[in-house]
Amino acid sequence: xxxxxxxxNALARWYRGRNELEKAEERLVQAYQWDTANPRWLWERGQxxxxxDRHDEAREIYQQIVEGEWAVGLQSYVEQAKEALNKR
Length: 88
Fold this sequence. Notes:
Layout: H1 5-17, H2 21-34, H3 40-51, H4 55-67, H5 75-86
Helix pairs in contact: 1-2, 2-3, 3-4, 4-5
């Protein structure tokens, strides 16, 4: 059981590579629980959900990113989430 967001993200990538997408999503949920100050984990999960054709759930994640308060250096995720929402 990894104790940091980066380790959970690494596991998510590994599961994704094995096409075990549900397990990959679980790891991304855990990553965000370890690091709620970083929208990266939400962004990664939104992208994964989109790839799984779970677009409504992805949209909710993107909206969460847009509405969140993030450090200045993490604003690129907000812009990416806005773009993803505008594509729908």
